[in-house]
Amino acid sequence: MSKVLMKGNEAIGEAAIRAGCLNYFAYPITPQSEVAEYLSRRMPEVGGVFLQGESEVAVSYMIFGAAACGERVFTTSSSPGISLMSEGVSYIVGAQCPAVFVNIMRGGPGLGGILPSQADYLQATKGIGHGDCRLLVMVPASVQEAVEMVMMAFPLAEKYRNPVMILGDGLIGQMMEPVTFPDHLKTPPSNKNDWATNGMDTRKSKTRNLVKSLYLDPEALNAHNLRLKAKYDRMREEEIRYETYNTDTDYQILIVSYGTMSRVCQSAIDTLKAKKIEVALVRPQNVFPFPEQAVLEAASKSSCRHVLSVEMSMGQMIEDIQRSVQGKRPVHWYGKCGGDVPTPEEVMEAVEKLIPA
Known about the structure:
By secondary structure, this protein is an alpha/beta fold. 41% of the residues lie in helices and 18% in strands.
């Protein structure tokens, strides 16, 4: 399988095509506009559909319409754009339609800036839409992993009949790295879409389908939410993904970090090891569901004294880490949120402050 050097945003667009998605609706916003630019050319070449909506709000309902028809569909945006899509996302969740959303995060709040950030963690994992609304949220640490997660996201969305979000910091979209598009991740669209509004002739059915999120009867709405909760609980059982680094040592500090920030942490850990300071890392690959047990086990090691969350936000992941650690170790935060990426040296300094003299 040959490798090709690609910018992250363009690789994300190509990965969706390789995954069998031929429907892309979007609105431009930095730092992910290259996805739309790339797919405006590529989609017609492969018989797909590209449409730039008049707004992110409009795009979210274009996604809803295509997903309700049982089509593979996705969009990409960045932080303020995802906020505008949040109503549509909740409708899509409520109607149990599969779709893929990619957020290449920028700094905020408000217009903020166009540089890298991880400050949409809470939005993605706990506040993406109104109601008891959840997405499966995947967090790549490289362009290659972004490619693989995009290709995995479509069958996962179909498996759960629920949107999946790829949450990438701005670096993921803008960096260039060599990538491959694994053949084993090229999956045909699900044929289990007898729920979709794809036409009775298509389904060879005499029954009309209605895709909706409206339940005016309180008992019916409660039963519907219980069905959704069972789906989220199943995600917690089946979709925990993470990696560990240097956990086979007697480390004093455990770092929890995700995305490209975790790569900076690995560099810091390697340099600290040369100074005889052992530090371990748990890197979530999904943040909903969060790898609680993995973090708890790593924090519970007898040599571990502190847990440090390193992220490009004001500590949005700390709540999930604290819940995982269950009070067994103190949890600290280090990070930046203006667009500057913390350096390995700055991470090392944050770690060394936690080690007693």
